[in-house]
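Researcher: Before we compare anything, I want clean individual predictions. No alignment, no superposition, just each chain on its own. First chain goes here; please echo the sequence and then give the structure tokens.
Model: Echoing the first chain and its structure:
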Amino acid sequence: MIAAVVFDVGECLVDETREYGTWADWLGVPRHTFAAMFGATIARGADYRDTFQVFDPTFDLASARQARADAGSPEWFGEDDLYDDVRPTLSALRDAGFLVGIAGNQTVRAGGLLRGLELPSDFIATSDDWGVQKPDVEFFDHVIATVEEHLREAVDSAQIVYVGDRLDNDLRPAKQRGLRTVHIRRGPWGWIHGSDPDLPQVADWQITSLSELPELLTAERASAS
């Protein structure tokens, strides 16, 4: 029986249009050019950070983040960057009795921004908090441990659902660790990975809006009881 639902951040909860647009500005590249190269990078299965190096072969993401912060233009997202279905869905899942978590590959700064939004969730954690990034399966060990800490009982990994837009970072490692998975088809990864032939093997469900989740998971829980 499903006990917890845990969400990725980028393009699952947060629309990253602003973030990548400001990176294009920082690099001095037209936004549509950056976006096109970004999509091409994802489509060929390369690391998204390779996009930056197309325009600046010496680019280092950590150093650039610090340089932006020093220049008074740090990475940022706020309420306006949340998808419209986020707050209603998280609230509905909690009201239905599910533990709701948020856990993604995010910096300490991004974690602070997320917590500042006061989303209706039981916990928020980042890869920087845990010292391990997806797609390392150990990330999902931390997900399971955090769920157990909040429920104050042991749970089977199959009692946890992980929701994400990426097969490589989200669904494959979560499934490898035994979690159940939901693929959301939005954002560049969501659309490109949404036609991947491996999707049926790594996603238990596919959705186009988070608003589909409460009814879907409540029905799944009822069928298992």
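Researcher: Okay. Second chain, same rules.
Model: Second chain and its structure:
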Amino acid sequence: MNAPATTDLPVVVIGAGPIGLAAAAHLVDRGIAPLVLEAGATAGAAVRGWAHVRLFSTWGEVVDRAAEKLLAPTGWAHPDPASYPSGGDWAEQYLQPLAHALGERVRLDSRVTGVSRAGRDRIVDADRDQQPFVVRIARADGREEQILARAVIDASGTWATPGPAGACGLPALGEGAAADRITYRVPDIGDPAVRARYAGRRTAVIGSGASAFTALVHLAALAGSGGNGEGTKGVWVVRRGISGSTFGGGSADQLPARGALGLAAKAAVDEGHADAVTGFRTEAIERDTEGRLVLVAEDGRRLDAVDEVIVLTGLRPDLGFLGELRLRLDERLQAPAGLAPLIDPNQHSCGTVYPHGHRELSHPEQGIHLVGMKSYGRAPTFLAMTGYEQVRSVAAALAGDLEAADRVELALPETGVCGGAGLFDTPAPSAAALAVTDVSAPVGGCCGS
């Protein structure tokens, strides 16, 4: 294959979400041509999937500096830095304008199905690093094409691959057959059809992170809304025990809305809108004679039947289309091996993850960088600010400015709901540990923001 010199080729960025578009903005700022490939029909397609959820980061924390610089000539006005956007706000007021500013550098309806080296499969060594990347694309109309690239930044995220209900990491027995009563997203109770699905019914929420907290708070709000919402009940299914840190940093959290979310979820349990079931590791989902779902634990325990199940057990990376590249990934987290020790959720929360960049994100295959949620693999401790720092560093490295690439330009807020030791079972606390002393207005969000 007669490939052009790699310096004449664009850097392909996979995904037109917050981190992918920020990567493109940093590349433009460095004089490097990006080409953003987005599988969806709009920029921020994944973010639009949780448009109803409010972030626990403010506008001042979710706008990238290089992106703002690119937006400035268009007349774009920065939203109030102290206010909290919803996912829909983020997509409409920031991501869409940023995609417009990037213009033809963003291609929609372009799903990446494979990445390799020109003329080299995974096993071939000869002149490998001198060959451009081959990026295969499937278009919405069924056409296939391929693009050559000097480097690839994979910011495709993990939204499309949620974790299953099964505690072993596999779907629970019967989970597929019960799909009509299971969702893997935080329901939008503001949608009349969604509201009708959960109103007055008993719903199991499986998970212990910010998304699960948000679902519990929404169900509690539905239960307290009167009308057909009366009788709405949540069953919070937790694989581990509940301790004093389960609900996060509370009023001590440097992201106040994140602390408020934990306190609101705590209130949902304390006020009886949700019953907590601890140490329950789901093995099977069965139907009773009325078609309702019964969760069965590995230890044989069976919960009373529920009408619906919301599975919020985290997200995982899709690595299938990178199979011809030489990646060095941590065997547990599926994150870059140099980054994994810094984000291990057994040891770290969002605020204790040291800012990092191109070196921690490197692989044996030079020129490929997994960034954003994709770089965190299965770890739930990601913040948008972290991703912006990652792509700033990667763009600087691709431009040959290693001094800037190695410089740390980020300070993260401490404490919060998304980490700490104890991913497995921990002893249940005393009743006093669950007492609520301060409940603020619930504000949803997730570390994947």
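Researcher: What stands out in the second chain?
Model: Residues 415-449 have pLDDT under 50 and may be disordered. Additionally, Residues 87-102 form the longest helix (16 residues).
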